[in-house]
Write a structure and sequence with these properties.
The complex is a heteropentamer, with 2 copies of chain A (364 residues), 1 copy of chain B (274 residues), 1 copy of chain C (296 residues) and 1 copy of chain D (403 residues).
Chain A: E1 4-13, E2 16-26, E3 31-35, H1 42-50, E4 57-62, E5 65-66, E6 77-80, H2 92-102, H3 107-120, H4 136-149, E7 154-158, H5 166-183, E8 186-191, H6 194-200, E9 203-208, E10 211-216, H7 218-223, H8 228-233, E11 240-247, E12 250-253, E13 259-260, E14 272-277, E15 282-285, E16 296-306, E17 310-317, E18 320-327, E19 337-342, E20 348-350
Parallel strand pairs in A: 3-8, 3-9, 6-7, 7-8
Antiparallel strand pairs in A: 1-2, 1-4, 4-5, 9-10, 11-12, 11-14, 12-13, 14-20, 15-19, 16-17, 16-19, 17-18
Helix pairs in contact in A: 2-3, 2-4, 3-4
Chain B: H1 7-31, H2 35-39, H3 53-61, H4 64-96, H5 102-112, H6 121-131, H7 137-160, H8 165-174, H9 178-189, H10 191-207, H11 210-215, H12 224-229, H13 239-272
Chain C: H1 7-41, E1 43-44, E2 54-55, H2 59-65, H3 68-100, H4 106-118, H5 121-132, H6 138-145, H7 159-187, H8 191-200, H9 204-215, H10 217-232, H11 236-241, H12 253-263, H13 267-294
Antiparallel strand pairs in C: 1-2
Helix pairs in contact in C: 1-13, 2-13, 3-7, 3-10, 3-12, 4-7, 7-10, 10-13, 12-13
Classes of the chains: A alpha+beta (364), B mainly alpha (274), C mainly alpha (296), D alpha/beta (403).
The structure holds adenosine-5'-triphosphate (2 copies) and magnesium ion (MG) (2 copies).
Chain lengths: 364, 274, 296, 403, 364
């Protein structure tokens, strides 16, 4: 196990900047997730750490040593690839044993280590098979096993679950979680799936077009997104956004009569704002709830859809569309009028220009 | 929706096969005719008498034919091995190792292969003479390799482009060097591509004429097409010998093509699928 | 390798190492002789070096421009290419479509169709020349016996027929190679495009013209370049089949260059012929690439 | 038999239907010269192929082959280029004097002899003796007689597959030989007495016109003659499909072979001439010589080998066993030669032989020959009138020769 | 618009039965979803309706006419393919116009119709582009546009969204929904994504290995799954399953001491059952809730993970693992002991042999 430090690491391909310089300290045993949409530079960052991609600027330290020019195999890292990248012509055993063989480890020890890992991952019955004869989940496990046998100091995962179907993905995610708890190896994990990121990560690095948008724990990025991008990327269904303009101490939602009463001092001089509200933070009240609370509004249900445990309501409040998530039993149907309450503590505000979160003077 | 019986298809297939094959069938039939039969007018469509004399006489009078075929085989195999190994390495480097001039090199390699080969002969001969490569297998293998390397580099490079790069990266992470990756990962994984390229190069080499004629001047070193082309005389054209020798000389190619024809198609398919 | 060298440079060095043997062989076999040819074409020298090389600039090229036989050879080469390539392409596409169908005995059929291409040109032209023979060849035998003609057809003795005969042999031999390359492309067309076509109401023919053909552009380009390169350099075919005759009706550029070099022993002028021929081939490839790429 | 420190000679020669002779001579030579071994590098009998091989080797100054067989028409050219070793210092005066002088002249440049005659061959008129007999026709001596005899037989047989006359009129060297026979038979020649190009003399034009007329007027020649090489013509004659055949003597063997349909039904005579030119030299001559590579590392031994192959004994044996007309005159006088009736008869025809102008034109010969082949073909294809074709030919030959 | 009727439709490839014979009536204007895991026969069924696959047995009626032997183009159906199947060498306009051109419609009318549809789908700016120059969502829209211009009686969709990323998928799903509302064309939609199925469908047909497992509205299949397969396939995270054995009138969870009190008369004689409970039907109570209720149990939290709005708890009740889904704020952490309540009305029971749902004598 080792810590990993990125000092002003950046990568360009000619004129194209794939990853802008940034700093990151990954502690020993930490599980760090790189999250972001396609093309944001996640793989590039991971591959720089792996040594598969040269580093354009900055220093990479693993366990305190600078490894910019070290061969991948000498960095003490092991990588699990998106499409497993198993050697299709070699048996499961040989796939897992390859790195050890190349290290010229004695045969007996190789066999012991591979067997131990296979045992741990439930792969013992398949050791003689070729990858083609395995199911997706089993292949994924072999890929992980191949990384484990090397007892690396750092695990790297590049979207290891994205080729699996939904059910298997959940299962493998849990296995990975357990594994990390058991081995405690520093792990860097790339994904574009926020559920994976939220459940697995100690900390999440959210990348947006090659730039770090936020680094924080899952709870931080969910509850205190640093930018509008983070707010929209995390959470499903996505946050409701609406443009608002200053109306005295209050804010009026542009194009509507809807006034959001001043909800805390905002540290901005701007005349306009983008407000954000998560669908689950809209509460549907019994229709007979008394008005008066400035945070209660009347809304029309445009569309109601059952997801299973939950339902989604497409609401219209004074012409402004809102998406709300409510329980899957006894929810209002399309056409009904309901009374909703917005939780002001949950309201987010972003600068429309910089898209950065506008802090509140009085934190909620 | 229902499948119609496809007599039309079979008719067209049979016709294509017939057209493709009849000169060879004619050649084979000829090899079983006696001299009178060969020149008979109107032509004999079926050998009458059906005779093996031509085969017997070729083995008794021109035992060197077997030597020619062996030479062709050695040169073909050697050239195939070199083009696959070296061409494979080069193709791998050009398609995977992010060389700065890879694109230009690829185009350059293609461009030099466009030069008319007739004009290369005098200069090649001179170089080979100076290098002591005349009448050696090494020499002709090198010459053929030079002719066909551009093709193999292009074929293999386009084949590699279809392979997932992650497997090689996994191998790097496992601690393999590039040579080892090439030999133990790329080679087995691109097997169909190699087989297809190799087979095509082998056939190219087997059929190559001008260089083989000039660079192998010793009788014992000649390749089959050159050797067989020795049979026609200044004045006489011994069809019985030539047809028989040709039939014998194409048997190896026929067998190899038959064995690997699936890979030719498969390999080209993968290569072209970009 | 030094530890301090960057990863990138180490990879690049390995790459150079991998490419070098191939480049060396190509340099020895192709590049060096090509350079010699180019040098020869700008000079005057005796072939065996008994007279020193003397630079004469474009003299040979100028002579070439005024050489009727060169223009004839160029014309013959173009005619041959222009006749054989479209036929090969058409047949190649047809054969590829055929081989893409599934039917019993497909493997065997594919082998049979492939086989002409595996036969040495030097030998197969001999076979054809024999079959073309006016007086005891197979074709005339059949034609006369069936009463199609009453005088033997002089396949190789008539200017037009000789060119035609040559084209037939070329097409016979190389359509299958063309088919192979096109088949490869054919197999990479997603099947659901054809299904979309069926849903849209396309007939088989419309599927072919609207989907198959446009999507085969890439493989067709490759096939065209490879084959045109060969057709523009055709040598063994006229050499063995017609000797370039009747008169010079089938004398290709390569054959002309061969005669200049090996019969007339004029290496300098011959080199000029070959260099011009190379430029023609190169230009042709570029034209193909641009013509086919600019269409969309 | 490579014994210690033996000299290894490489001899390049095709088998040319006398492979037996080559093997026999090598064996005997090795026996006589135990220090020297000879490797026989068999080359193609197709002159173009062996020429390509020689040219590539010789321009690169390759020391092998040490000895090689060359077509008589290449000798002047190769000698001029300095590729051949002069033989005067190796062969005795006496030996050189014994060679056929007209043949030797083709290999003599600036008074030096660069190659020794191996054998001579030439064209003859083969005819179907049975058919001539059937129609009571005497063996024709002139072209006029050939044409009328052809017509009689063709008409009489009524077989559309039967032609009167066949020969090698494809655009090859053989056509040039053929044409020379025709014009010489009409009293013309390539160069006139003053050494001027005379290919368009009235006699030459008339003779050439006869060739064209045989094709289009008299129709005794098939169209396919324009693509015939020697063996194509021989095949037709052998299949009984032609009355007359004019090619080299080599065809005698296959024609008289056991399974030949015309065995015993044919004979030959000297090439025809035109009426009034009985003494014309109408037999086109060819033949092969042996030469020593100027870059050979064993010139001494090489010359010895040449000498052996062209020795009286060797040539006599070849004449008797392989029907090869000797390249030296003294062999014809040998008593054994009376036994060899065939070779004698060939020899009579060679007395009226004509050689091609290769010695005079030297390294320009290939171009000259090419021009003549092209222009005669133009005439035969009626692309040009005979007069135009031969005038063009004369002009081009003059420009090639720098006249 | 037309109704679609499948009468004992089935499909075999030689000895392999891809779809077993079944009946289905699809009403005019209905949105029917075929749902099931990979290889269950969804595409095969759809393609039989399209006419791309011959029908082995049974009759297919569209608008009351038998169309088994009708050409695809004459069935009045239009299809949207999984990977769009756009003609890559034709412009967006030409892609959409193709079917009309082939019908020999006048040029002016083609242009009008294509432009109208492009307008509706927001594709007008892209009409001249080739598909390669479009984003995934735009391509998807072109594929849909191509189907719409033909004004078909039936729309067929084969996993039209599966190649899009998560966010785009949600967006396109809503567009599809709107479109259906607007055009009201009978639609048959294949997917293996339950969220798509739940939100889009009027009715869902769930296929399991070539057999119809259940046909019903989204609510029915979610709340009253007909088989254990349906129960496990629908809902995410998946239902908790536990084997139980009869213990008098009660049921004991096999291998534990956990007794589930008799929860309604079950119409089964079997000695064993499989019980099912959805994670969202486990309620976490304040730790000080009084026991006594037989449906309240004590549980240990093994693992707690925040998904965003919700959190997942891996619980252990008396050794039996349970997955529970709770709100994302203030949920118990790993290691804590909590008190949970199971909603007996939400408990499902399946026959372990047949895997069919065991009905209750007294319906809840
Ligand atoms: N070899 C290259 N040359 C030029 N640009 C590149 C190269 N490789 C990647 N890029 C660019 O760098 C950026 C980041 O790519 P990267 O693969 O890291 O994205 P990612 O976040 O992993 O996306 P995905 O989720 O699709 O895998 C992209 O915009 C990509 O186009
Ligand atoms: N041409 C065929 N020959 C034999 N079996 C086939 C053929 N096509 C499909 N099958 C089989 O029929 C079954 C159903 O296939 P189908 O394509 O309908 O599945 P699907 O539900 O669409 O799956 P997916 O979600 O993977 O697309 C599969 O088991 C498949 O293997
Ligand atoms: Mg990536
Ligand atoms: Mg499917």
């Amino acid at each position: 196990m080792a810590s990993v430090t990125l000092k002003q690491i950046g990568k360009s391909y000619g004129a194209v900047t794939a990853v802008e310089q940034f700093d990151l300290d990954i502690a020993d045993g930490e599980f760090l997730v790189l999250l972001g949409p396609s093309g944001c530079g996640k793989s590039t960052t991971l591959r720089m750490i792996a040594g598969l991609e040269s580093i354009t600027t900055g220093d990479l330290m693993i366990g305190g040593t600078r490894v910019n020019d070290t061969d991948p195999k000498d960095r003490g890292v092991a990588m699990v690839f998106q499409n497993y990248a198993l050697y299709p012509h070699k048996s499961v055993f040989d796939n897992m044993a390859m790195a050890l063989k190349l290290q010229k480890m004695p045969k007996a020890e190789i066999a012991k280590r591979v067997n131990d890992v296979a045992d741990m991952l439930g792969l013992t019955p398949y050791l003689e098979r070729k990858p083609a004869a395995l199911s997706g989940g089993q292949r994924q496990r072999v890929a992980i096993g191949r990384a484990i046998v090397r007892t690396p100091e750092v695990f790297l995962f590049d979207e290891p679950l994205s080729n699996l179907d939904a059910q298997l993905r959940v299962k493998m995610r849990m296995e990975l979680q357990e594994l990390h708890e058991r081995l405690g190896v520093t792990s860097i994990y790339v994904t574009h799936d926020q559920v994976e990121a939220m459940t697995l990560a100690d900390r999440i690095v959210i990348l947006d077009r090659g730039r770090v948008a936020q680094i924080g724990t899952p709870r931080e990025v969910y509850e205190q997104p640093a930018t509008r991008f983070v707010a929209s990327f995390i959470g499903s269904p996505a946050m409701n956004f609406m443009p608002a303009e200053r109306a005295g101490t209050d804010w009026k939602i542009t194009g509507t009569d809807l006034v959001i009463p001043g909800f805390g001092q905002l540290a901005t001089e701007a005349a306009a704002l983008t407000l954000g509200l998560r669908p689950e933070h809209i509460e549907v009240l019994p229709a007979d709830t008394a008005p008066g609370d400035p945070w209660v509004f009347d809304a029309t249900v445009k569309l109601a859809e059952l997801l299973g445990a939950d339902a989604l309501l497409n609401l219209s409040v004074n012409g402004q569309p809102f998406l709300a998530r409510v329980g899957g039993t006894d929810f209002p149907q399309a056409g009904e009028t309901v009374r909703i309450r917005v939780d002001p503590a949950r309201l987010h505000a972003f600068d429309p220009e910089t898209e950065l979160t506008v802090a509140r003077a009085a934190q909620h | 929706m229902q499948k119609r019986p496809r007599y039309g298809l079979y008719a067209i297939v049979s016709l294509s096969v017939l057209i493709s094959f009849f000169p060879i069938v004619w050649l084979i039939l000829t090899s079983f005719k006696n001299t009178a039969g060969i020149y008979a007018w109107p032509p004999q469509y079926w050998p009458d008498p059906f005779t093996l004399d031509n085969y017997i006489s070729i083995f008794t009078n021109s035992p060197e034919l077997l030597r020619y075929i062996l030479n062709s085989f050695i040169v073909g195999a050697g050239c195939t091995a070199i083009t696959l190994l070296l061409g494979g390495l080069a193709a791998y480097a050009l398609s995977r190792l992010r060389l700065r001039f890879a694109g230009m090199l690829m185009v350059g390699i293609l461009a030099v292969s466009m030069f008319p080969p007739v004009s290369l002969l005098p200069s090649l001969f001179q170089n080979f003479l100076n290098l002591g490569l005349l009448n050696t297998y090494t020499g002709l293998i090198l010459a053929h390799a030079g002719l066909f390397l551009p093709f193999s580099v292009w074929m293999l490079a386009s084949y590699f482009a279809t392979l997932p790069v992650e497997i090689e990266e996994a191998a790097r992470m496992d601690g393999m060097g590039f040579v080892r990756i090439f030999l133990t990962i790329v080679l087995p994984l691109s097997w169909p591509g190699f087989v297809a390229t190799g087979l095509i190069v082998f056939i190219f080499s087997w059929n190559e004429f001008p260089l083989s004629l000039v660079l192998m001047t010793q009788n014992a070193m000649r390749t089959a097409p050159v050797g067989i082309s020795l049979y026609p005389g200044e004045y006489a054209f011994p069809w019985e010998t030539i047809s028989t020798a040709t039939v014998l000389a194409i048997i190896p190619v026929l067998i190899i093509t038959a064995i690997f024809q699936k890979q030719i198609v498969g390999g080209l398919t993968a290569g072209a699928g970009k | 390798m030094s530890r301090t060298m960057s990863l990138e440079r180490r990879t690049a060095l390995t790459g150079i190492g991998f490419v070098t043997p191939t480049i060396l062989i190509i340099a020895l076999i192709l590049i060096y002789p090509i350079i010699q040819s180019v040098v020869l074409s700008f000079g005057q020298s005796s072939i065996d070096g008994s007279q020193p090389y003397q630079f004469v600039g474009l003299k040979h090229y100028a002579a070439l421009m005024g050489d009727g036989r060169f223009w004839n050879a160029l014309g013959v080469t173009f005619t041959f290419t222009a006749l054989s390539i479209p036929l090969e392409l058409g047949l190649g596409i047809g054969l590829a479509l055929l081989m893409n169908e599934s039917f019993k005995g497909k493997g065997l059929a594919r082998l049979a169709v492939l086989f002409p291409w595996a036969l040495p040109t030097a030998l197969n032209t001999l076979i054809w020349r024999w079959m073309y023979n006016s007086d005891y060849g197979l074709f005339n035998g059949i034609a006369l016996q069936s009463g199609l003609v009453d005088r033997p057809i002089n396949f190789l003795g008539d200017e037009i027929l000789a060119m035609g005969s040559m084209v037939v042999v070329a097409v016979w031999k190389t359509s299958s190679f063309m088919a192979l390359i096109i088949l490869a492309g054919l197999q990479s067309i997603p099947r659901d495009l054809f299904e979309a076509g069926r849903m849209d109401g396309m007939s088989k023919w419309q599927e072919f013209t609207q989907i198959t053909l446009p999507l085969l552009k890439g493989p067709i380009l490759v096939a065209l370049i490879i084959r045109s390169m060969d057709a523009l350099r055709t040598f063994e075919l006229p050499f063995n089949l017609t000797d370039g005759g009747p008169v010079n009706a089938t004398e290709s550029l390569s054959l002309y260059a061969y005669k200049v070099i090996f019969d007339f022993l004029d290496f300098n002028f011959g080199a000029a012929v070959v260099v011009v021929q190379f430029l023609v081939i190169f230009a042709m490839s570029l034209i193909y690439v641009f013509a086919l790429q600019n269409k969309d | 038999p490579a014994v210690a420190a033996a000299q290894e000679l490489v001899l390049s020669i095709g088998s040319r239907g006398y492979g037996g002779m080559v093997e026999r001579n090598i064996e005997a030579f090795e026996a006589a010269n135990p220090d020297t071994s000879v490797e026989w590098l068999k080359v193609s009998d197709v002159p173009g192929d062996s020429r390509k091989l020689y040219v590539t080797g010789l321009t690169a100054k390759s020391p092998t082959p040490d000895v090689f067989a060359i077509d008589v028409i290449w000798a002047g050219e190769f000698a001029q280029r300095g590729w051949l070793e002069p033989l005067n210092d190796y062969l005795g005066e006496e030996t050189i004097a014994a060679y056929n002088p007209s043949f030797l002249s083709a290999a003599t440049v600036e008074d030096k002899v660069f190659a020794a005659p191996l054998y001579v061959d030439g064209t003859h008129l083969f005819y179907r003796s049975d058919l001539l007999e059937k129609y009571g026709i005497a063996v024709p001596k002139t072209w006029e007689e050939v044409i009328s005899a052809s017509k009689i037989v063709m008409e009489g047989e009524g077989n559309p597959q039967l032609y009167g006359f066949v020969s090698m009129w494809a655009k090859i060297e053989g056509l040039f030989m053929n044409w020379l026979s025709f014009i010489n038979g009409n009293g013309a020649s390539f160069f006139d007495a003053d050494g001027n190009v005379a290919v368009n003399s009235p006699e030459a034009i008339a003779a050439t016109q006869t060739m064209v007329d045989m094709l289009y007027e008299d129709r005794i020649v098939p169209d396919s003659i324009l693509t015939m090489r020697p063996d194509d013509a021989r095949t037709l004659f052998q299949q009984g499909r032609a009355v007359f055949l004019m090619v080299q003597d080599f065809v005698h063997a296959p024609l008289s072979a056991e399974d030949s349909p015309v065995a015993g039904k044919f004979d030959f005579t000297r090439n025809p001439y035109f009426e009034g030119h009985e003494d014309a030299h109408s037999t086109a001559m060819g033949g092969w010589l042996l030469a020593v590579n100027a870059n050979s590392e064993h010139k001494e031994e090489a010359a010895k080998l040449v000498e052996y192959f062209t020795s009286y004994a060797a040539q006599l044996a070849a004449a008797i066993d392989e029907n090869r007309a000797p390249g030296r005159t003294d062999v014809y006088a040998a008593p054994e030669m009376t036994e060899a009736a065939l070779i004698q008869k060939f020899g009579e025809d060679y007395a009226v032989g004509v050689v091609r102008p290769s010695a005079i034109t030297g390294s320009l010969y290939p171009r000259v020959s090419e021009v003549m082949q092209t222009e005669v073909t133009n005439a035969l294809h009626r692309q040009k009138t005979v007069e135009e074709a031969l005038n063009d030919a004369a002009a081009e030959v003059n420009s090639i020769l720098g006249k």
